[in-house]
Amino acid sequence: MNINSELAAARSRDFHEAAANHRAVQAARRARRAGHTQRGRDPERVVIRRAADQDGAVIAQLADLNAAPRPRGEMLLVELEGRIVAAVPVAGGDALGDPFAPTAQLIDLAERRAKLLREPAQQRRGRVAALLGTLHGQRPAA
């Protein structure tokens, strides 16, 4: 087997995997719209949002659960099924997670969002412009 056939096989597997994932997402959406769930499990709703003034008590509670000082500054909150389970400082630093909920991946996701929020707007626009140029067949400027 040569390199071209191996690449073609890998690409084919990637397409099949992407198609299977797409079908699963579409089925979950149809089930949710119909009021049903797959495999008897309710789909989990995750929301990442900026903290508001009224969220101070929940952030303090998360800090107490983690035996950590209450963080200062702008925070991103992670809600799982309408319940706040994590808080991540936008400026960076230690995240607070509910030790009684599965939050590791959710915190990682919120930290990635916080990193994007820290990135200067001009840098974000440049990255988006380069992506759009690539999608339209243009080469990004060096």
Describe this structure in words.
The chain is an alpha+beta fold and 142 residues long. 51% of the residues lie in helices and 14% in strands. It contains 4 helices and 4 strands. The protein starts with a helix and ends in a 7-residue tail after the last helix. The model has no long low-confidence stretch (mean pLDDT 80).
Give, in order, the helices and strands. Answer: HEHEEEHH
Strand order of the largest sheet: 1-2-3-4
Could you state the oligomeric state of the chains shown?
A: single chain
Mean pLDDT: 80
Based on DSSP secondary structure assignment, what is the total number of beta strands? 4
Major β-sheet, in short?
4 strands, antiparallel
Helix content: 40-55%
Q: What are the low-pLDDT stretches, counting only 5+ consecutive residues below 50? A: none
Number of domains as seen in the coordinates: 2
Number of DSSP helical runs: 4
Structural class: alpha+beta
Strand content: 5-15%
Tell the overall outline: extended
How many angstroms does the end-to-end distance come to? 37 Å
